[in-house]
Design goal:
Blueprint: H1 3-17, E1 22-24, E2 33-37, E3 46-52, E4 56-62, H2 70-74, E5 89-92, E6 98-104, H3 114-130
Antiparallel strand pairs: 1-2, 2-3, 3-4, 4-6, 5-6
Amino acid sequence: MSTKEIAAEFVQTIQTHFPNVKFKQPTENRSNRISIYVPNSKRNKRWMQVDWNKTVVNIAMDHLKGEISKETVESSEIPYGKLDGNHTRIILADNDDAVKLSIFINEPVDFKNQKFIGFLKEHFESYLRRVGET
């Protein structure tokens, strides 16, 4: 499976479990990026940014600062730890307002895993609070 296919599978998972989100599709200048957001009256602050190249899919997920713990991120069942450029990993960003996920072709993620879906749902609720939609 290519990284573009992995990104598409991830986007399909988001579409299935979060039908109200919108997708800013790749552009001519950024043909390897999809932004995911909920339209709102204040601003269309993205929830996720999905980027890919030949070797890795990188996903940045924004949430309300301080609301997502390391334990919550670890509940996704994706190996937690420093993004080393070689292995699939997930980590809470240093500024505590985002989660970063890198997925490598040789270390895929099961997007149908119920614990991963549960993590996404908890993260989404925090994102909604960040953009003032709850």
